[in-house]
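An instance noted here:
***
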Amino acid sequence: MATIMKNLTIETALSLFESYAIKQNEYSYLHVNSSKANYFFDKLHEIVNWMKENGHLDSLSNYYSHPNIAVRSWAACYLLPLHEKESLEVLEEIVKMKVPDSFDAQMTIREWKNGNLKNFYTL
């Protein structure tokens, strides 16, 4: 991954973010494989850190209306420190959908409002 990160473009980073978000969700809910779900979470986090370091984190807002709920949800979570109102709206929409991701979105909203995620998403 170090080589990929060195030569990464924003387009590639966004594509990887999308792919990793989908795979993380699939291994969490469809395949129920926590090891692989955690692997893709770590990869997702690496991409987000690269985006933060290179001033591209705001680009995730393009995914607020992504057709895949996992991509939408992860983008909203990582953008909470930058666009709290919009991110919370996206997460609240997901809660209303009553899909497997709804519970995660609901817990993220609650924990964000309680101040328990501020350090995680702003690192």
Observations:
- The radius of gyration is 14 Å.
